[in-house]
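quick one, two chains, predict together pls
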Amino acid sequence: MFSYLIRRLLYAIPILFGVMLITFLLFFVVQPPYARARAILGEKARPAQVQQWLHDHGYDKPTYLNTKPGQHLFDSLFVNQMKRLITFDFGVSDKTSLPIAKTFKDGVIPSLCLTLPAFVIGFIMAVTLSLYQVFIRYSALDRFGVFFCVALMSIPPMIYMFVGQRVLAMQLNYFPAYGFDLRGWQTAKFLLLPVTLMIVMYLGNDVRLYRTIFLEEITQDYVRTALAKGVPQSRVLFVHVLKNGMISLITLVVAHLPFLIMGSLLLENFFGIPGLGNALIHAIQTGDAAMTNALVYLGALFYLAGLMLTDICYAFADPRIRLS
Amino acid sequence: MIESLHHFFGNWITQDVLVVVFFAAVIGLLLRGSRNERWQRAWKFMKGDRLGLAAGVLIIGYLIIGGLDLLQISPTTTVFDWLANDVVGLHDEPTKASYSAPFSTHTFSTAKPEPLQFPGRHFLGTTQIGKDTFIQALKGSSTALLLGGLTSLIYLPLGILLGISAGYYRGWVDDAIQYIYSTIMAIPDILFLIAFIMVFGKGVGTMSWALALTSWISLCRLLRGETMRLTERQFISAARALGQSHWNIITRHLLPNVMHLVLINFVLGFSGVVLTEAILSYLGVGTPIGTASWGQMIDGARGELSREPVVWWNVSAATVALFGLVLSLNLFADSLRRAFDPKRS
């Protein structure tokens, strides 16, 4: 088990290196620092100003290797960037010159406030609904359920937000329409609508997926045995099938856990929740390449963390992997 | 039609030729596929699936409208424009006009409503610059078709080639391909798309590349697994024993047996492209402003919905049009999957 995890961890290193390479190519080669400086300072900036800006941000180095006499060979953009990313030193934002690490720290809590409840409630709802669909499988209601799920998936997420804000918040006055406040009861009031919307957005996809997984499970032999010895069908489904299906479900779901920290791009921006998703949208709109770069790298880190978590779960759930 | 498309194709005659070639190629591929026994069996199964067939018909409708709007008869008008203006009699307002409600005779303004040039004819109202909303919503299918078409032209060959190579040759080829897609997969899709478009600049071309670079992975993984399963089968061993070349085995024995997976993936990918375009346009990295796309129309709703009284017709028309296409594509893909694999589901 331990050696298995070590192997998986080692496997993540070249991938992380590849991600760094891609982000470097995008943000330093395709769009050289000079272009970034121009974009931030404006077309009218004097060359000296641009040079000063590049120097302040450490962007005035050669791209790959520093071949200038009297300077260290590895004092280049590429090597410095690698070093910084490996040590989680994200530097400062291009636009505001504030430390990027601080933006992350401030954004995590609001993001989690939105995504964590939505994730937990959404998961429970999706499992319940999909199990019920399996219980009444191939009936008219089940088929309508599948159609309804596909329909939910086919609506762009923005539409949910428009309708939610328009109808629930502004017309019926059930929820505050916009804003965020991190003070106990206030937080809940502001979050109720975005959380509800987030659950609805993902419900169609999840229910359909879980239904397929549970449907596959009920063709197994143990289900036939249980039914043959007279266990009622509801018990077979909600105890036996649920337990076994959960193994594949959890490994599927665990991979998404780290992404909860990243929040939700669209919802945070629309409802004014100051999370990481909002920070990213802000970075795109202001052309802040350093911030976007850092967030992309962070996203990849979370993905790899999710992969590791999945492997651990697999190893716990399935002894064959642990022993091999 | 749209400026940005013109720039993309160079000139309008090239555009027409390319559109015709694209449609001919798709029809040719489908005809070629229909000779395959497996596809014939699937077609027999699909004939009983009314929902799937209805979805298919709706998709063809969208394709025809989109295709007509990509075919130009002059640098500024398309076949679709000609049909809408001269045959059906739907017109845009002159450019200085603004919003007007469905069927209204005056522009949408509480302070100073001005008479419209075509009163009562805009049965879905007009957009901010006086364009007929109904025409714009239909024209959105051409942008969707163009994006979906270009994206698939890039990602299908890439996914098929790499997926089959990885599954067939295995060894270091497989390792290298796996490494490439694991790395791209490690960057969450939406972040990759945003970063790519932000750096290379907005545009239909950039967006197709970005979407293609994220889409090929699912196809590649699917084909890799399927090829691995197929190469264990006896007909492949027989072909090998008979001394057939790798090329022959791949093109004659493997490819026809995985093409149905490519078709299903293509249909699903198309619906993904349409939805992603809307999200990217909303995030400000989508199609260029001025493009008749559903994403742009939905993005416009942010301002329109906060007006008093509310301008609701643009976002509604775009949403219904987009929803119709994405829903039919998803249902059609489901129906295809059932038809090709009746045992499961």
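Residues 246-283 of chain B form the longest helix (38 residues).
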